[in-house]
Design goal:
Structural class: alpha/beta
Largest sheet: 3 strands, parallel
Strand content: 15-25%
Radius of gyration: 12 Å
Number of strands: 3
Helix content: 10-25%
Shape: globular
Number of helices: 3
Distance between the termini: 12 Å
Strand order of the largest sheet: 1-2-3
């Protein structure tokens, strides 16, 4: 669900990651660090099927960032 007044930033490492998003963990952590808590941005990060709760604790993510294993890009991006 798009947040009114917020710009959408979509990051996907799902295709690149294949069976393991672990090599992209630093990139994802930097995106979270840079954009976490910035109210003007809604951030969706797609990690592919390799996402697990121990990868990055989704419970402690800022409210404007969502980590998912799959996104319907056709529905999200318009």
């Amino acid at each position: 669900q798009k947040q009114p007044g917020a710009s959408l930033i979509y990051c996907s490492v799902g295709t690149l990651a294949g069976s393991s998003a672990q090599p992209y963990r630093h990139f994802i952590e930097e995106v979270v660090r840079a954009l976490g808590g910035v109210a003007n941005y809604q951030v969706v990060i797609s990690t592919g099927r390799s996402f697990t709760e121990d990868f990055i604790d989704a419970a402690v993510l800022p409210s404007n960032i969502r980590l998912v294993d799959h996104v319907n890009q056709q529905a999200l991006l318009p």
